[in-house]
Amino acid sequence: MDYAIEVEKLRKEFKSYSSRSGLMGAFRDLFTRNYKIIRAVDDISFTVKQGEMVGYIGENGAGKSTTIKMLTGILTPTSGKVVVNGMNPHKEREAFVRTIGVVFGQRSQLWWDIAVQESFRLLKKVYRVSDRDYKEHMEHVIETLDIGPLLDKPVRKLSLGQRMRCELAAALIHNPPLLFLDEPTIGLDVLVKLKIRQFLKEINEKYKTTILLTTHDISDIEALCERVIMLDEGKIIYDGSLQRLKENWGEGKQIQFTFAKEVVDEELRVLTNDLKIDWRKGEQANSWIAHVPPVYVSDVISRVVARYDIQDINIHEISTEEIIRNIYEEGVAHG
């Protein structure tokens, strides 16, 4: 089996109920409810090979969490096919959960009032992990994530960063071949993020652990994933390499000009209309930003400087975050 995840025409629909206003409306709602069908995930198909680390990204409400919940067996799809680790997540529940690890940034799998190591001990029993396997694998995990000093503390006494490191360790007690991470670094400080990223790289190299990562933090994706799947309104709008995404969309630089006086955008467009340039208003007064292919940078600067009084010029590389924002604004990605 080469694929860790196979998804074909996967769909999830929810009923969204609306309430009628007033007393009469409330009375009528008791008997009939108005609802509309919302398609959170809209016939998506993709595969993830064993050992891949894939970033699954999208804005809030794009359908990321709904997909993860179907892949982990929490939600049943409305239609379509899901095969994860060679199994149907819903039908072979007990065998299936032993083959995955899940970390939801917003939800805990550790028991709140008992020491972390007691939670680990319980999970070890649940997953039927032998003493030898536990010792061999978890010593490395505990050391790398630097959670040794936290093991005898109850979870409620831990900071968010400490808890997330323990959550990650808990998800790996049975050394699953596939790890789902849903916003694993949300709210964490930079050093903890770096530690978690480093650790994920290590387990991927050491055990060929497949990782599907959803995050708002694009630097997580840049540090870990060569491939991204991008979701918008329940549909996949891009599936391919991060590198290609940057090459197709991130070519060029942004030059910010701050003019001494007000300038009309029409004049700027006329000045550069033979070059492929996109002008937009900057946030500061009298500032304009030109999105410029690399070959035209010096040309644009010399034309603008020759024509106008300039107070300041800044040149920026285009960040992955901006590339992704541009794609969402246009609503389509070229493969």
From TrEMBL:
Gene3D superfamilies: P-loop containing nucleotide triphosphate hydrolases. The lineage of its organism: Bacteria, Bacillati, Bacillota, Bacilli, Bacillales. It comes from Anoxybacteroides tepidamans. It comes from the Bacteria. This is ABC-2 type transport system ATP-binding protein. The keyword Nucleotide-binding applies. Residues 25-258 form the ABC transporter domain. SMART domains: AAA. One of its GO terms (molecular function) is ATP hydrolysis activity. PANTHER family: ABC TRANSPORTER ATP-BINDING PROTEIN, ABC-TRANSPORT PROTEIN, ATP-BINDING COMPONENT. InterPro entries: AAA+_ATPase, ABC_transporter-like_ATP-bd, ABC_transporter_ATP-binding, P-loop_NTPase. Keywords: ATP-binding, Nucleotide-binding, Transport. It holds the Pfam family ABC_tran. The keyword Transport applies.
